[in-house]
């Protein structure tokens, strides 16, 4: 996912992602390079320090991983936090993983 917010991933959008993640039992992690944040922790998400243009990985594993991945991705798009790069994109690589 490519972050397009001019201010980066600040408190409001981080809270939106955390709220979406809390609806699921799966382990959901947001990664920026070698930094990893539990998406259930707003402090951890903010500590990533993701700025505009950052490429974020979303890692989801657990019983409801498919639903969780779809919901988090949809939150990212609906709340205009950025764009989801499809798997055929050169930038994508393995950015969305289950």
TrEMBL record:
What is the protein named? HPr family phosphocarrier protein
What InterPro entries does this protein map onto? HPr, HPr-like, HPr-like_sf, PTS_HPr_His_P_site, PTS_HPr_Ser_P_site
Q: Which CDD domains match?
A: PTS-HPr_like
Q: Where does the record place the HPr domain?
A: 1-84
The superkingdom listed in its UniProt entry is Bacteria
Q: Which Pfam families match?
A: PTS-HPr (PF00381)
- Subcellular location per the Swiss-Prot or TrEMBL entry: Cytoplasm
Alphabetically sorted, this entry's keywords are: Cytoplasm, Phosphotransferase system
Determine if ATP-binding is one of this entry's keywords. no
**Biological source species:** Limisphaera ngatamarikiensis
Cellular compartments per GO CC: cytoplasm
Record has Cytoplasm as a keyword:
yes
Coiled coil residues, start to end? none
SUPFAM superfamilies assigned = HPr-like (SSF55594)
């Amino acid at each position: 996912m490519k972050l397009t917010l001019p201010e980066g991933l600040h408190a409001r959008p981080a809270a939106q992602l955390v709220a979406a993640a809390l609806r699921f039992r799966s382990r959901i992690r947001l990664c920026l390079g070698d930094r990893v944040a539990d998406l259930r922790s707003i402090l951890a998400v903010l500590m990533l320090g993701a700025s505009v243009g950052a490429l974020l990985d979303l890692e989801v594993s657990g019983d409801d991983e498919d639903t969780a991945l779809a919901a988090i991705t949809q939150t990212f798009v609906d709340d205009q936090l950025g764009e989801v790069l499809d798997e055929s994109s050169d930038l994508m690589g393995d950015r969305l993983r289950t």
